[in-house]
Design goal:
This protein is of the alpha+beta class. The protein has a single domain, classed as PAS domain (Beta-Lactamase, 2-Layer Sandwich). It contains four helices and four strands. The protein has a two-stranded antiparallel ribbon with strand order 1-2. The longest helix has 12 residues. It is globular and about 35 Å long. The termini are far apart.
Length: about 90
């Protein structure tokens, strides 16, 4: 299973994506950078992702879960995520 990496702002806007993640989404950096995680998350998984983010804000980390991403052609692809805690100014 390939490993990919992407980074978002605390607001959920993608600021970096490696080539593996871009390949997974079948997209380019220009297509992905600046999008919200909501725009690339399959709607069936969106509430679980919101719940995960709440858990991370409460410092329950890291979180591992399965979710589906939306590709540029409208299809979905499943992936397993490992998400670390959010950094804070006091960390």
């Amino acid at each position: 299973m390939p490993a990919t990496h992407w980074i978002s702002s605390l607001e959920g806007v993608i600021v970096y994506a490696d080539q593996g993640f871009l390949d997974l989404l079948q997209s380019t950096a220009d297509d992905v950078i600046g999008l919200s995680y909501r725009q690339i998350t399959d709607p069936r998984d969106l509430q679980r992702i919101v719940d995960m983010l709440v858990a991370l804000e409460e410092r329950t980390a890291p979180v591992r879960l399965q979710k589906r991403y939306l590709r540029s052609d409208g299809s979905s692809i499943a992936a397993t995520l490992l998400v670390p805690a959010f950094p804070t100014l006091t960390d």
